[in-house]
């Protein structure tokens, strides 16, 4: 158990819909990262927040957005869903925003878009 | 971000040592070498990292070549639980973000 929690574990929805994935970092971790894992693209970094502020952006689509709240939990919002958005979405957390420290990954949310 | 090259797959027998290689010929002087692994149906987990010197922890050892253009993750006695995808990742020392850029990794199969 990494200490990072993600809800829900599974999500099945239809094309065109909007969903919200939630992540609670380890106690004391200020940085949250979102990653997407699909069969064809592998594990890809989406976005990072540190203490409520966006820190880095990766290959995140404009239809996707994220935020980190004052209690440090984070939400990833996916809208106008397409079949290709079906993937595992992982959240990770670390103490610092930069190089220092390992990242702890949650168990992931499996999104299926039908 | 500097690129790493790893074999797609490797096999090992249980209780034998495993050496997982990684090439990173374009590594810069401030890049750290990180290893993560992903067990089936789980999120990635940190294994080890280093800069220049060899490193040991309870999970594994990391041997870094003198020119830093390659490294090897060593599992001293593989167990069935070590079957996973192992990712070798470079993280810039001058970077202001801790994002991880994953490659394809090496799928390690451990035979009983």
Please, how many helices of chain B?
Answer: 0
Distance between the termini of chain B: 38 Å
Fraction of helical residues of chain B: under 10%
Give the oligomer, counting copies of the same chain as homo and different chains as hetero. heterodimer
Largest β-sheet summary of chain A? 7 strands, mixed
Q: Your description of this structure?
A:
With 114 residues, chain A is mainly beta. Chain A is 0% helix and 53% strand. In chain A, strands 2, 4, 5, 6, 9, 10 and 11 form a seven-stranded mixed β-sheet that branches. In chain A, strands 1-3-8-7 form a four-stranded antiparallel β-sheet, with no helix packed on it. In chain A, strand 5 and strand 6 (53-57) form a beta hairpin. Chain A is globular and about 35 Å long. Chain B has a five-stranded mixed β-sheet, with no helix packed on it. In chain B, strands 2-7-6-5 form a four-stranded antiparallel β-sheet, with no helix packed on it. The mean pLDDT of chain B is 92. The A-B interface holds A 2, 4, 31, 33, 35, 42-45, 48, 55-56, 58, 90, 92, 94, 96-108 and B 32, 36, 38, 42-46, 49, 87, 91-93, 95-104.
């Amino acid at each position: 158990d990494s200490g990072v929690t993600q809800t829900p574990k599974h999500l099945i929805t239809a094309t065109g819909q909007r969903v919200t994935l939630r992540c609670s970092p380890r106690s004391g971790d200020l940085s949250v990262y979102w990653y997407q894992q699909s069969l064809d693209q592998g594990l890809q970094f989406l976005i990072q927040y540190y203490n409520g502020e966006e820190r880095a952006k990766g290959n995140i689509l404009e239809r996707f957005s994220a935020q980190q709240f004052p209690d440090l939990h984070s939400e990833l919002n996916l809208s106008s869903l397409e079949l290709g958005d079906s993937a595992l979405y992982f959240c990770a957390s670390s103490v610092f925003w930069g190089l220092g420290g390992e990242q702890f990954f949650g168990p992931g949310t499996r999104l299926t878009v039908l | 971000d500097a690129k790493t090259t790893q074999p797609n797959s490797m096999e090992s027998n249980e209780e034998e040592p495993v050496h997982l290689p990684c090439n990173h010929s374009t590594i810069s002087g401030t890049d750290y070498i990180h290893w993560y692994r992903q067990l089936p149906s789980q999120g990635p987990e940190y294994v080890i990292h280093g800069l220049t010197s060899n490193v040991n922890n309870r999970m594994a050892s990391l041997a870094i070549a003198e020119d830093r253009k390659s490294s090897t993750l060593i599992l001293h006695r593989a167990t069935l639980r070590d079957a996973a995808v192992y990712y070798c990742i470079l993280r810039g020392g001058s970077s202001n973000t801790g994002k991880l850029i994953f490659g394809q990794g090496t799928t390690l199969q451990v035979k009983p």
